[in-house]
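Let us work through a complete example step by step.
Step 1: write down the sequence.
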Amino acid sequence: MKGLLFKDFLLIRRQGKTLLYLLVFYVIFFFVLARSSDKPADSGTVAGVVSTIAVILEYVLILNTLAYDENSKWNRYALSLPVGRNGIVGAKYLFVLLFSAAMGALSLLAEAVLLRGRMTGTDAAAVLGVSCLSPLVLCAVLLPVVYRFGLQKTRFVLAAVFLIPWLLSSALKNHAAAVPWEMILRFSPLAAALLFAGSYFLSCRLYAGREAE
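Step 2: predict the structure and record it as tokens.
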């Protein structure tokens, strides 16, 4: 399984550097923008933008590993490995988990700099929720579909998955005051973990019945 993880990290190494430079550029840009304003709300807003950008970059890189696997007919070779189908799926989920944790730590560091010492525990939890848990939830929805039908056949699902956070935020926007945010932040890690674990077992079952391509 270590080899499968190493393969995914090698796939994103070249493109990941470019996207990482892009993320650094946005961090510097928004840092300058935040320093030009003494209003904490403005700093918090631009800090939230950085987390959102990190989520998009992470999601793109994860999709790229799936696209590379499919275009290179990786599954034909992978199925000959001793790890089995469950190991192939498990390596991808572990890659998503490790990559999300790394991007969450990077976003937390970037926003701590942008907020200039004004970050509270609630702010930190919100940052991790956006930059770390959001990709886990998105991938938990997407990966079972990909393992059942393949990435090329689920291109329209990608747009639907991207719409999930937007729809949720739009639905909660008009009732923000009534939403128990503290409770949501407290239980969201458990909910995301259960969804991610359930997605893994579902992907294993779906991939077990899929023909090698």
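Step 3: interpret the result. The two ends are 21 Å apart (CA to CA).
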